[in-house]
Amino acid sequence: MRKGAKARPWTVAELAYLRESAGKVPRREICGKLRRSRRAVESQVMLMRSAGEDVTLRCFKSRLSTCPACGALRSRLGAEGICEPCRRRRQLEGVHAAMAGLLARLPPEERAVYAETEAETGSRADPMPRPPDTAGMGSYERARAEEAHEVAVEDWLARNLRREIKAAQKRKERVKKKLKTLEMNS
User: Fold this and answer.
1) Are 143 and 103 found together in one domain?
2) How many Cβ atoms are within 10 Å of 130's Cβ, its own excluded?
3) What is the domain extent for residue 138?
4) What is the mean pLDDT of residues 162-179?
5) 67 — alpha (psi -120 to 50), left (phi > 0) or beta?
6) pTM for the full model?
7) Residue 160 CB: number of other CB atoms within 10 A?
8) Do residue 141 and residue 74 come from a single domain?
9) Half-sphere exposure (Cβ direction) of 65: Cα atoms closer than 13 Å
């Protein structure tokens, strides 16, 4: 503001825009849209905060992107363009398909044994990460905590799928070994 110029009062619409955009839109864009200086916008935000409103000009930019296969927010997409959990699920499907092909080659009595014991198989699974307690957090801190939780869930899912794949591969190896033994004996 120029020295000696009168302060322009804030309108209800400007305050509503500031409440809605603060923390979501960069400060420079807010100042441009409102046609107010950086100092005027910061001063108004300080007044709003002192009145108890949860308003911050810190703009959080999420690093997460949407996986085209599952539609979930993920921290990394691999060379195939999908997230790690989706890639692991595809890998597990491949192992199960190979296992089905091997089981079809087994004699019916041997296949029955695997069908019976297959229900008992199961890998240990880690508990899912708990969502963060965002009570009392500002919008910026809340957004960061929620993003960190999304990344933790992604890692948890990939870890548990990795365990399932290893267990399925081990079962497939056992079936292969059994099949080889049966073929050598016949």
Assistant:
1) yes
2) 8
3) 65-185
4) 91
5) beta
6) 0.72
7) 18
8) yes
9) 10
DSSP state of 10: P
The per-residue pLDDT for range 12-32, each reduced to its tens digit, is 999 999 998 888 888 999 999
Q: Which two tokens stand for residue 30?
A: 């807010």
Tokens 């919008």 correspond to: 139
Count of the separate structural domains present in the chain = 2
Instruction: Please say if the pLDDT value at position 8 is more than 80.
Output: yes
Whether pLDDT at 6 is above 80 = no
Return the number of other C-beta atoms located less than 10 Å from residue 122's C-beta.
Answer: 9
Residue 135 has pLDDT above 90, yes or no: no
Tokens standing for 26? 């960069």
Boundary residue ending a domain (59, 87, 104): 59
38 and 69 part of one domain: no
Measured CA distances, 141 to 36, 54, 93 (Å): 26, 11, 39
**108 contact partners, CB below 8 Å, separation of at least 6:** none
The tens digit of pLDDT for each residue in 28-69 reads 999 999 999 999 999 999 999 999 888 888 888 889 999 999
Distance CA 74, CA 82 (A): 9
Lookup: tokens for 117: 């014991």
